[in-house]
Design brief:
Two copies of one chain form a homodimer. In chain A, helix 10 crosses helix 12. In chain A, 46% of the residues are buried. With 479 residues, chain A is α/β, with parallel strands linked by helices. In chain A, strands 1-2-3-4-5 form a five-stranded mixed β-sheet, with helices on both faces. Chain A has a five-stranded mixed β-sheet with strand order 7-6-8-9-10. Helices cover 47% and strands 14% of the residues of chain A. At the A-B interface, helix 8, helix 9 and helix 14 of A face helix 7, helix 8 and helix 13 of B. The structure holds zinc ion (4 copies). One zinc ion (ZN) binds next to loops of chain B. The site of one zinc ion has 7 residues of chain B, from loops.
């Protein structure tokens, strides 16, 4: 029904042009993606080139000059100096380069991406939400969710912690809701408690339209219906937990979104007037793209709102409130640009529909790091609690890296709150503890130099610098 | 200056009688302590007796009949039945008996201890506090803190989580404060937000008057000044974290208390009018006992209040507010009963001034389990984060049990909130995860049968039953 290259129905060979596409934004995002991918892609050929020179006279100097030119930084001196004795320790250099590239790329991203402005906060408030909290699956293919797929201003999202299968921790989320509420009551931030606004919790699951049985969500056995149902159940548990503990009316709205990781198109489950969603009532944005690509902007916009109404009408239920309708319409329209982005850049579908990550990102994760398939992310406080998610990541990277003799780069990152005394010190301690636990869990890989850990901390405030932390593998700490 | 048996200054050979002692309460507490200690004390002799019969004809029946009579429950059948082949597995029976005794003792305690009533809540509110949160050191000798040493109604305390060295987790405590505040704002529970009441955070450190250099707080190298200073610093970090994050005035009061674990007498650090405390400004309740034991009740009471005022007068600072003064006076007066309790029952000082615990209690801990030196307690979510505290416990029990061939009983206990969907299931999962981590950390002990884990969960509501959970060692689960 949907063609292999679904966004390109009506333009034979020609690139598509949807009337609602934000062309300027697509251009900027493309530049950012190219910058990030370029830096990572340079690592392997550069090291190969350097390795080929290791018997030459002034090896250290030439190696560093190549590294500066191709990678943008110098390599750790020790392996270069020692190369003449035992051969070049490519694994150590690879690990160090990946860790250094992460910081380089984040610095550049922070410089490129516009700071979020008051309009962005105003948008959510206009829809009736004082806080928006999004839980995607930790799958690396959703790493571009906020900035690319949904085109939302990252800093205005209350939380975007990812969990395997989007199965978020209910207690953790209730605690965040409580904190948000208290800010409204005590400080009227962002609006007073009696302003009639709500807290919005979104869950994002994913599936693969090209290979649904294999490239969907691993945490749910690549079963898209199961993934959706699990998300729906968890959302309802969250809402019920709040209602049961705080006797409060429905001050929480929930929303379920599916992402086709092959095309980045979304599917939004439309709530009814009571906020209830079903597995089968959704608006498919691929279809909407096809239906609106030849219209003028106003008609296209009307059609988006119609699609939302049609969904609840077809089910003979009342539709969601005005603010929710506007929010959904905006998400759909934003995502039309991304459908076209994937179309224009990748011919409709990503070539790497499966795993193809560069690093395992562990801890709180990098907010700046929003490019698809760049990181396999495990949100964790302790290895003990998240060992299954980590094992999956190690398995993926055994195939991606270890089989070619390259190490698995594990980047540990925790955020702290400089307003809380001792918080930074505790986040550093946490990096070290998690690092030790990872090395002990995957001891064999680590001892062969096939698993390399780096660690960084960062203040909570948006745009804060990334601070590298020395773990015991001094080599990487010094880069 | 303070005599070896400090509470007995003026009665040569005669038991002391302080005019403010709550004799009826002392009597009840003594009965409760005797019940608890009696059940644990019965385990070893009973198993020895049973072991001596193992070659007899109807061994299983006689063993069970002895167990029922002496311990109050039947032993697991398997080791008794198999005894004729490999000899009696005393380690397994000991572990099972300890786990079963814990539940028996808690059931009995729940039946004995009066439910807390509205007067108790009213007392704290009268002092100006809508919530009281106490952090003691996790040392087993403070296990009787709330019910015995301070004589406070347990259910009205917001939290009493213990940490090694009383070094509580600031983030965790701020989250609890936030939740308490939201309840006031949203639900006016226990009083509306504008009632002018405060949140009180108490830290309790400890020291040994008999052997200060060895039997003080292990977490602070048995240095009482260091223990007090660490508590003071942590309290100030907590207050600052709240002020920095919520811009709110001093809605939090803090209080530092020291306990002499040899006599159970307390020392209260007296805050000034700004809530500031110092290491050297305190009221010593042993001294107060001596100074008031021969007075009439009214004069004794006046003297307690005078001691509080004298402390700040001597420092030439203004004293704390009326509510804080009343709270401190009440704590001191309550503790006078405990000083006399220890005097009457143990001749002024405990005979076991060092470690003498029966179990390692891990997780959330048993609120009902308030008898000194009964449990070495490690409050934890994961073994990974608390491995140092656990190692200390294992070391203590290696000396107490393993050297005599008896296993270390580790009792894992987590509470859940039945109002939160899935919370009970998650607490059970947590029991199993922590159990696995403990067995893997102390693999050798476990494989020799020298470490035995049991697990239980319990709803948050005060007085909820203890629910045993099967770990993989089926034997204990079945008892
Ligand atoms: Zn196209
Ligand atoms: Zn997934
Ligand atoms: Zn006496
Ligand atoms: Zn201690």
């Amino acid at each position: 029904e949907i063609p292999p290259n679904p966004a390109c129905v009506n333009s034979h060979g020609q690139p598509c042009r949807h009337p609602l596409t934000n062309t300027a934004q697509n251009h900027d995002l493309m530049a950012c993606e190219a910058m990030v991918r370029g830096h990572f892609a340079a690592i392997e050929p550069t090291l190969r080139k350097i390795a080929s020179l290791q018997r030459e006279e002034s090896f250290v100097e030439s190696a560093q000059s190549i590294a500066r030119a191709e990678l943008g930084f110098e390599l750790p001196a020790r392996p270069l100096k020692d190369a003449w004795v035992n051969g070049l320790d490519v694994r150590a250099l690879y690990g160090a380069s990946v860790m250094r590239t992460i910081r380089l790329v984040i610095d550049k991203t922070q410089a490129i991406v516009n700071q979020d402005n008051e309009d962005d906060v105003a948008f959510f408030l206009d829809c009736g939400y004082h806080a928006v909290d999004i839980t995607p699956c930790s799958d690396g293919r959703l790493k571009g969710l906020i900035r690319y797929i949904l085109r939302l201003p990252g800093a205005t999202i209350r939380s975007k912690k990812a969990y395997a299968g989007a199965m978020f921790d209910v207690e953790d989320n209730v605690a965040r809701w409580i904190e948000t509420e208290l800010m409204r009551y005590r400080e009227a931030i962002p609006v007073p408690a009696d302003a009639g606004t709500r807290y919005l919790k979104i869950v994002v699951y994913h599936y693969s339209s090209s290979d649904p049985d294999h490239e969907g969500c691993a945490a749910h056995g690549s079963d898209e219906r199961l993934a959706a149902k699990a998300g729906l159940d968890r959302l309802s548990e969250f809402r019920q937990a709040i209602e049961n503990s705080f006797f409060c009316g429905a001050s929480v709205d929930t929303l379920l979104i599916g992402v086709d990781t092959d095309t980045d198109s979304i599917r939004v489950h439309i709530p009814d007037a009571n906020g209830e969603m079903t597995l089968d009532r959704w608006v498919c944005n691929l279809r909407l793209y096809q239906d609106t690509v030849n219209l003028d902007p106003t008609s296209a916009r009307v059609k988006v709102f119609e699609a939302i109404s049609d969904a609840t009408v077809a089910d003979a239920v009342e539709g969601p409130h005005e603010g929710m309708r506007r929010l959904i319409a905006t998400l759909l329209i934003n995502n039309l640009s991304q459908v076209e982005y994937v179309c224009g850049r990748y011919g409709g579908r990503y070539p790497d529909i499966g795993h193809n990550e560069q690093i395992i990102s562990v801890g709180d994760g990098f907010g700046e790091f929003q490019v698809r398939n760049l990181a396999y992310f495990v949100y964790l406080h302790t290895v003990e609690e998240s060992v299954q998610d980590l094992d999956v990541g190690i398995k993926i990277f055994t195939r991606l890296n270890v089989e070619r003799g390259l190490p698995i780069p594990v980047s540990i990152h925790f955020r702290y709150d400089r307003r809380v005394p001792g918080s930074r010190e505790r986040s550093i301690e946490r990096c070290r503890r998690v690092g030790d636990a990872i090395k002990s869990r995957y001891k064999e890989l680590y001892q062969q130099g096939l698993l390399i850990c780096g660690a960084t901390v960062q203040d909570m405030a948006s745009g804060s610098p990334i601070e590298p932390i020395e773990l015991d593998n001094i080599l990487i700490g010094r880069v």
